[in-house]
Design brief:
Chain A: One of its GO terms (cellular component) is plasma membrane. The complex is a heterodimer of chains A (107) and B (121). The N and C termini of chain A lie far apart (36 Å). Chain A is globular and about 40 Å long. Chain A is mainly β and 107 residues long. Chain A has no helices and 9 strands. Chain A has a single domain, classed as Immunoglobulins (Immunoglobulin-like, Sandwich), CATH 2.60.40. By secondary structure, chain B is mostly beta strands. In chain B, strands 2, 4, 5, 6, 9, 10 and 11 form a 7-stranded mixed β-sheet that branches. The chains are: A mainly beta (107), B mainly beta (121). The interface between A and B is medium-sized, with 20 and 21 residues.
Chain lengths: 107, 121
């Protein structure tokens, strides 16, 4: 089965840039999607197709995907960005796969 | 704008069947080429995809749950449903329904607000 690996936590100061990684075997050949989940709320799609943003998602959110690592980048981090972030792919053998999630803490 | 809302019992006894319904509003469940999925999240843990259904009735299930899961759709009510049999405490989780763009746009958007199901006697 296909596995996605995320760091459990990432910390960043306000105004700085946060990078959250998602590792998987040759993940660069797959489309990666990212979700933001704030406490007590449902996940919200923030990036699809590696780097596209749904309407309403700030330009501060961007994504990239190459080789064995996909990255969600949040620029000019704000306190309101504090949340859990999950990556997700579709794999022909595993169907839907989610990463374990990364807790973003804004210092 | 499409919205989803889960409903069903919040407490289920061990060995019984968990039943939830997702009501879609703001659009027809039959419009577009969308599938409709169930996803769950135990407290403090990550997301687990349970399965999906198309309005034709075609389904795909997570292999780890396949033997216990049934997803159905009622287009007349704009609803789809989840049944999970022989539940144990390990099935205690927040259950979400979501629109699934499988296979081409294989992400989930939007999601319902989620409903907590506790398995306990």
């Amino acid at each position: 089965s296909y596995v996605l690996t995320q760091p459990p936590s990432v910390s960043v100061a306000p105004g700085k840039t946060a990078r959250i990684t998602c590792g998987g075997n040759n993940i660069g050949s797959k489309s990666v999607h990212w979700y933001q989940q704030k406490p007590g709320q449902a996940p919200v799609l923030v990036i699809y197709y590696d780097s596209d943003r749904p309407s309403g998602i700030p330009e501060r959110f961007s994504g990239s995907n190459s080789g064995n690592t996909a990255t969600l980048t949040i620029s000019r981090v704000e306190a309101g960005d504090e949340a859990d972030y999950y990556c997700q792919v579709w794999d022909s053998s595993s169907d839907v796969v989610f990463g374990g999630g990364t807790k973003l803490t804004v210092l | 704008q499409v919205q989803l809302q889960e409903s069903g019992p919040g407490l289920v006894k061990p060995s019984q069947t968990l039943s939830l319904t997702c009501t879609v509003s703001g659009g027809s469940i039959s419009s577009g080429s969308y599938y409709w999925s169930w996803i769950r999240q135990p407290a403090g843990k990550g997301l687990e995809w349970i399965g999906r259904i198309y309005t034709s009735g075609s389904t795909n299930y997570n292999p780890s749950l396949k033997s216990r899961v049934t997803i159905s759709v009622d287009t007349s009510k704009n609803q789809f449903s989840l049944k999970l049999s022989s539940v144990t405490a390990a099935d205690t989780a927040v259950y979400y329904c979501a629109r699934d763009g499988f296979p081409a746009e294989n992400w989930f958007d939007p999601w319902g607000q989620g409903t907590l199901v506790t398995v306990s006697s």
